[in-house]
Amino acid sequence: MRPEKLKGHLDLLLLAILAEGPIHGYAVMEQLRTRSGETFDLPEGTVYPALHRLQKSRLVTSAWDVVNGRRRRVYTLTDRGRAQLQREHATWNEFAGAIQSVLKGVSWPEPA
Length: 112
Known about the structure:
Elements: H1 10-18, E1 23-24, H2 25-35, H3 44-56, E2 60-67, E3 70-77, H4 79-104
Antiparallel strand pairs: 1-3, 2-3
């Protein structure tokens, strides 16, 4: 899938992956790819700028780590990032439910 199709949703996906614990940038890309069944096979030029933007917004922090002699930047979700993830997840659920209602031809929210 082309990165522009994810516009407005990439931050939610990155925050969700980071919510599981500290992880380096390449592993974030691997998780996106694997967990989406290869649908979100995004290039470094999409993922790293988004991670840097999240860091600038103080939603994530990063630190250098050395593994097998290689330096890697490890990203960690902040408390502020966790709160943002909850808000974006709720917004996404509302959006997805409304889209499903339109596709099914029923009113939103669906009657109980």
